[in-house]
Amino acid sequence: MIKDIKTLKLKPILLIAVYFSLINFAYSHNHFPITIDSKIMIAKGKIAYENNCVSCHMINLAGAKNWKGVDEDGHRKAPPLNGTGHTWHHDDKTLHAIIKNGLAKLVKNYEGKMIGFEDKLSDKDIDSVLAYIKSYWPKDKYDHQINMSK
Ligand code: HEC
Question: Is CATH 1.10.760.10 the classification given to domain 31-149?
């Protein structure tokens, strides 16, 4: 080993290792899957949720009344995020992107009401909101979604 380093045989491999750990470090704020292991993260997410999401998704995350219908403008209503709807069918990357960019950037000609929160919430805030949302999910749905997000 020491001899290898001396003769620099390991150099390319070491460089590649350093490069990948730097990339990992740079993206570590987007660390998926997002778990419910950190109480602090959930508490922060609750505050961000209550400041930004309650008006449509409701304080208990249950979504709009009769959420499967459309509102007076003909737009879809806010679905529940509490595990009864379909939020847990999406992996963390998708959920993060929906909250960050809104559906407008993801769906062509989108005219609905789910706008992005890029200007208001950092990536870390968004991950915290997701941890808070997941804290409502039944264990089987949580486990399923965590597996999808790995
Ligand atoms: C102005 C109302 C409004 C606000 C505020 C809002 N949403 Fe939404 N959201 C919607 C609507 C409406 C949809 C359904 C989108 C559609 O189908 O057009 C949606 C969809 C979503 C989805 C996809 C859910 C799924 O099951 O597919 C997620 C996740 C979500 N919102 C999270 C959030 C979070 C987190 C916040 C706060 C940071 C937030 N929303 C704020 C209206 C809103």
Answer: yes
